[in-house]
Fold this sequence. Notes:
Blueprint: E1 4-13, E2 16-25, E3 28-34, E4 37-44, H1 49-59, E5 69-76, E6 81-87, E7 97-99, E8 105-107, H2 127-140, H3 142-147, E9 151-156, E10 161-167, H4 170-184, E11 192-195, H5 201-209, E12 214-217, H6 223-232, E13 235-241, E14 244-249
Parallel strand pairs: 3-6, 11-12, 12-13
Antiparallel strand pairs: 1-2, 3-4, 5-6, 7-8, 9-10, 9-11, 13-14
Helix pairs in contact: 1-4, 4-5, 5-6
Amino acid sequence: MATDHPFDVLEYRDGVFRAARVRAIREVPLRMVVNGRELVRLMFTGAHPRFLAAGYLLSCGLIESARDIATLDVEEGPDALEARVALRNSQPRAHALSVTSGLGRVLAGQGQRLRTQLPLAKGWVDPAAVVRLAAELHARSDLYRLTRGCHNASLCSAGEMLLFRSDIGRHNAIDTLAGQCLLEGLPTGDKMVVSTGRVASEIVHKAVRAGIPVLASTAAATALAVESAREHGLTLIGNVDAGGFRVYSDPGRLAG
């Protein structure tokens, strides 16, 4: 499924209107039905719906591992893609939905069952690698250059970008990474996420729920995100650019 769509528009430049052709990012509804009950509808680009669904369930605390999922199938419905999930030993309660700072919908109480502390191996994150990986994040973002309408996130080892995802919002991009790790059994305790976009508290919760101990963004963090990162032992890095970055929280993973 294409993640963008062409439109003929008018552009106003240098005091003159001109015809132009632009590419706009797609918004595709993903209807999540868990144990026969609709849980939520997410808007996304249409790419990697299984990974997004699994990552969303993990970040909301409805599952702890891939073993909690009996089946996860994606079908085309009349007005949306539909992710139909059967959980083994859990019947989701009728959770309230709340609006996040990214205008996404999450289950009320998300983050209440976070791990108390993330795994700690000291000195494995090279500061120069963080800067380089953030530059690579921008270099890989063909969809952003085409539409100017997406956020990007990547899963990285100490020095290599392993997975890259673009989506309408940073929430979806990070959930998709987490869901792929979950479904494919990829270890996360020695990995970091490098992303675009403001780091709000729910972004920190997603990293902690996924067991990813380092989160770096090209944008700033909110106060609650910093407090949550320090509480759970997350290395939180913000404002990454070619000249460096800001360290909001680090229990010792950064080298030097």
